[in-house]
Amino acid sequence: MDSGNFWFAFGLTLFAGLSTGIGSALAFFTKSTSTRFLSLSLGFSAGVMVYVSFVEILSKARLALVPGFGERGASWYTVVAFFAGILIIALIDRLIPSQENPHEIRRVEDVDRGNKKDPRLVRMGLFTALAIGIHNFPEGIATFMAGLTDPTIAVPIAVAIAIHNIPEGIAVSVPISYGTGNKKRGFFLSFLSGLAEPVGALLAYFILMPFLSDSLFGFIFAGVAGIMVFISIDELLPTAREYGRHHLAVYGFLAGMAVMAISLLLFI
After folding, report:
1. What is residue 247's predicted lDDT score, i.e. its pLDDT?
2. Is 117 exposed, middle or buried (0-12, 13-18, 19+ CB in 10 A)?
């Protein structure tokens, strides 16, 4: 594998993961959450992920499986791998307590700023950071694999995942910042939680790359599509709606699909 491809893919994964720092910065520097921005952005991110998963990634996965399994076998295995990806991310999601689940939205203004050094808030923040770290492993693998194989879909995927990491950064930073009375600590731990994605990328590289074949690539890519569709349906769209901007989330979703469609057409 070309080292340039590796660094491109790893750089995208690092960018996506460390975007939790953007959410942390919002909590650090602002007094309230921009619900309009988050609703629109999360909807946009979901639109990108859903469109690219169904239109591009699944078709590439199936094509990669055809040489090894034939047309019919490739179609079956693509579907199986797709739902296996959904099952994996759903199990990870179920194993995380709801209070520490990164899908449970938190706003900058949710925490009483006068309630300093509350150990319960610190515990919440630390468990949320751990939950996000576990949750982001497969996202790191998804971004990295896309970066290795097709830059035209890798960049939008990385941007979409980066956007969805913003509220996760808030979820870590807010309770730690106001539980310890130290905003810098909240910012640091929130930023650090995003490192799970590049770690996931490195694990994928060192464990999977020696065995990479067209068939393995097909299975992984179909699983990645399942992971991204689940994240969009279970996390991004519900979170966008919970921020109180239902129509903005829908408009963002449609805009994300349109932008992804146009970007793919431009590179045909």
Report:
1. 81
2. exposed
